[in-house]
Amino acid sequence: MADNNLEVEKMLKDLIKVNAVIATELIQLVENSSRLVHGGEVPETCRVQHRALREEIVQIAERWNEGCETLRDHNLAHD
User: Fold this and answer.
1) pTM summary value
2) What does 23-66 look like in DSSP terms, one character per residue?
3) 9, 39, 55, 69: least CB-packed within 10 angstroms?
């Protein structure tokens, strides 16, 4: 039974990390679409909120997973 619990725990950690990647990429997709709609500029309020969301999502992924450096580096480099 303990082996089964360990496997479920590993799976949940993987899902958290995968969902973090999906969530942060969707935020970037929305920002890129907004840039197209607004003639090359994203409203500052959106940029600030998107960055805060990306930071929070990365923190959640890091709380449950080691090895999120690529997720952190990639997402926090976006402006």
Assistant:
1) 0.84
2) HHHHHHHHHHHHHHHTTT---HHHHHHHHHHHHHHHHHHHHH-S
3) 39
Whole-angstrom CA distances from 63 to 17, 32, 60, 68 are 10, 28, 5, 10
pLDDT digits (tens, 9 = 90+) for 28-54: 998 889 888 888 888 888 889 999 999
Domain boundaries, the chain: 44-79
> To which residue do tokens 């089964």 refer?
4
Give the closest residue to 49 by CA, choosing from 69, 62, 34, 65: 34
> Is residue 50 within 8 Å of residue 40, measured between CB atoms?
no
d(CA 5, CA 22): 26
